[in-house]
Write a structure and sequence with these properties.
This protein has 91 residues and is α+β, with helices and mostly antiparallel strands. It is built from two helices and six strands, in the order E-E-E-H-E-E-H-E. The longest helix has 12 residues. 12% of the residues are buried.
Length: 91
């Protein structure tokens, strides 16, 4: 479980492939990202959004990893930061 990234409170279980997204906190960004994900066929297992000052951090846990083309298309949505974290496998 991860609870902090560079001073920003987050919650990543490590059980699912995860996207960590940071962006300017403005109207419509949650719909923009979630709508994009629906269009790719990706299923969102959980979503958590936190805000600090004028920035927002969205953590999306997905049922499956996304491919490189989808990741690169996400970058075109006007995000400040985007990272993909794989699920942590049990030993």
């Amino acid at each position: 479980e991860i609870i902090d990234i560079d001073g920003t409170q987050v919650l990543l279980s490590g059980d699912y492939p995860t996207l960590v997204i940071q962006y300017e906190d403005k109207l419509g960004m949650i719909e923009k990202v979630s709508g994009f994900m629906v269009g790719t066929g990706a299923n969102i297992a959980s979503m958590k959004v936190t805000r600090s000052r004028r920035k927002a951090t969205m953590v999306l846990e997905l049922d499956a990893r996304i491919d490189r083309r989808t990741f690169e298309a996400l970058e075109g949505l006007g995000l400040d930061y985007l990272a993909s974290v794989g699920a942590v496998e049990e030993e």
